[in-house]
Amino acid sequence: MEAAGAGAATPSHASMVDTDDFDLSRLLNHRPRINVERQRSFDDRSLGDLYLSAMDGRGAGGYMDSYESMYSPGGGLRSLTGTPASSTRLSFEPHPLVGDAWDALRRSLVCFRGQPLGTIAAVDSSSGEVLNYDQVFVRDFVPSALAFLMNGEPEIVKNFLLKTLLLQGWEKRIDRFKLGEGAMPASFKVLKDPKRGVDTLAADFGESAIGRVAPADSGFWWIILLRAYTKSTGDHTLAETPECQKGIRLIMNQCLAEGFDTFPTLLCADGCCMIDRRMGVYGYPIEIQALFFMSLRCALLLLKPEAEGNKDIMERIVTRLHALSYHMRTYFWLDFQQLNVIYRFKTEEYSHTAVNKFNVIPESIPDWLFDFMPSRGGYFVGNVSPARMDFRWFALGNCVAILASLATPEQAGAIMDLIEERWEDLIGEMPLKICYPAIEGHEWQNVTGCDPKNTRWSYHNGGSWPVLIWLLTAACIKTGRLKIARRAIDLAEARLARDSWPEYYDGKLGRYVGKQARKHQTWSIAGYLVAKMMLEDPSHLGMISLEEDKAMNPVLKRSASWTV
């Protein structure tokens, strides 16, 4: 993560405000309505069916209650280490590392006017001293938020959702340019004035980030987290408030705005997501497309059809979802069979009947891919645009694609097959490679601009990030591949605490603590805890997983593990 230092100057225009006059704070004192009744799942209903039933007056609450009811709201009893007690059939002795991880996570909590608001990026696990920076990053907080929800502590998450919604309403300017109304901050910090006894918030919408790139993913993570909160607690009142409904609409309007696009995918600048430095992910990166797809589906479940302005946006969401799923499953998917098709592509086809619709030149296929692609397995490539296909593997986008059911069940199984077949490359000695392979030499110079932080097999250029283990575990549970998750967690447990919870690891196998990795990294701690709690109680998966929509029939019919 890149950030302005703790002592950096306060950003202009959208930086600091006293929030006493903002009426969202009244919601902080409202206790959630806990729904402990487990409903029958309606997973076989399509998005179109849900939308039409909502138009008939059933409302958002109706299909929120019936859809994806794998997770039982309200949580359970807590174990001695602070995690929810597991059922008898799933119970096991908790690893001693879990208790230490919870202690470290709680030390990272930051309060705003006496209420816990989020977790800062890094805190010394023994002294509680703030390390390096003291911002609360929106994307970084997600695993911490899930840990608190799984542990039956939703108020922290509720506070976070409301305060970030407050920040969305600020005027956002970078130099003389005004950002869109729907933009969510990359991060914020709590500024304390001991003389006045007043806390204020300072937000960064990209004006302090390296490269001055606005975070395209913050709004998506906010919607996904709002849905997770609603699913976990059974409290629909927060999502149904006019303020939250407006916040969702603003994010959706910004993403669905009409322009010169010929594809349903979302056009983005380099460095606009977890990979927040120049790494050649400009265009249509898989991470953004998967998060976009998941946030569209979550928004459709959260929006109230009867609220003013929602009917039109819901219709646009349904239309976009069908177009996006078709596009991603058709043009981003790669397995052995499709690689052979691309290898034999003809070029310069000028017709609506063209097979090579993006005019991908077969000679652009990198040599490493022919050996990397197994007979069993497949994945969504990193980027597809005219005459360009980025064949790199990106972990976050592929895992989110599984959770959002952007990947069909066959494709999800193929992604897990690939991880199993290429364990040394994608997992190594520390899960999980953020991307594979690393770029080096002249390519590294051209793509990164000679970035000294993104050297080969380091940071975002093939580095190993422990935080991603929660996404891997969730994908494993959804696809029924628990052995992969357990094996990866065992690797992480052997080193994380001993290495002081580093941000990332370097090397082709992830053997070395990253050369610039921050220690005591909060989301490394939270990612581990979420992975452990999901393995202990797989029903937690319902918070962050969406079942396949039957109306979006896959275009590709290749099997998950195509073999010769």
Automatic annotation (TrEMBL):
Molecular function as annotated in GO: beta-fructofuranosidase activity; endo-alpha-N-acetylgalactosaminidase activity
The family this protein is said to belong to: Belongs to the glycosyl hydrolase 100 family.
Task performed by this protein: Invertase that cleaves sucrose into glucose and fructose.
Regions that span the bilayer: none
Pfam family, one: Glyco_hydro_100
Keywords from the named record: Carbohydrate metabolism, Glycosidase, Hydrolase
Organism: Triticum aestivum
Keyword Hydrolase found: yes
Keyword check for Hydrolase: yes
E.C. designation(s): 3.2.1.26
Catalyzed reactions: Hydrolysis of terminal non-reducing beta-D-fructofuranoside residues in beta-D-fructofuranosides
Lineage: Eukaryota, Viridiplantae, Streptophyta, Embryophyta, Tracheophyta
Protein name: Alkaline/neutral invertase
GO biological process: carbohydrate metabolic process
InterPro entries found in the cross-reference section: 6-hairpin_glycosidase_sf, 6hp_glycosidase-like_sf, Glyco_hydro_100
